[in-house]
Design a protein that fits this description.
Elements (H helix, E strand, L loop, with lengths): L12 E3 L3 E2 L2 H11 L3 H4 L1 H5 L10 H15 L7 E9 L8 E13 L6 E11 L5 E12 L4
Antiparallel strand pairs: 1-4, 2-4, 3-6, 4-5, 5-6
Amino acid sequence: MSLYFEDLTPGLRFTSRAVRMSVEGIIGFARDYDPQPFHTDPEAAVESFFGGLAASGWHTAATTMRLMVESVPIAGGLIGAGVEIAWTRPVRPGDELVAVSEVMELKPLRSKPDRGMAVVRIETRDGAGEAVQVITCKMVVPRRPV
């Protein structure tokens, strides 16, 4: 089922499946994209700001993107038009992440009548239900074809 702009309403929510973050996954992502000791070396991470191994915020963001693609069925895919992101808690090995996406606002686009803009807030939560990341995203959503 693909959703169009007309199918969305403020307050509509989508909840993803859970993904468990592993030591190997955290270190592997960080080696490739964010090679800092608190993401790549469990021993060095103990002496860091985080007090232990923590996933890169970009790893959390990439995981969230995957979860959104799987759980938010927008026709034509998820097309971003801007994002604000906050990392509120470190993600640790063993954490199970779930993305909860909520439509906050909808705006038809006068200049592009075949699409609208949705503002979506995505909370990525750990197994305890605590937000580890909060994203506010503007998304381009196609209008239903006539």
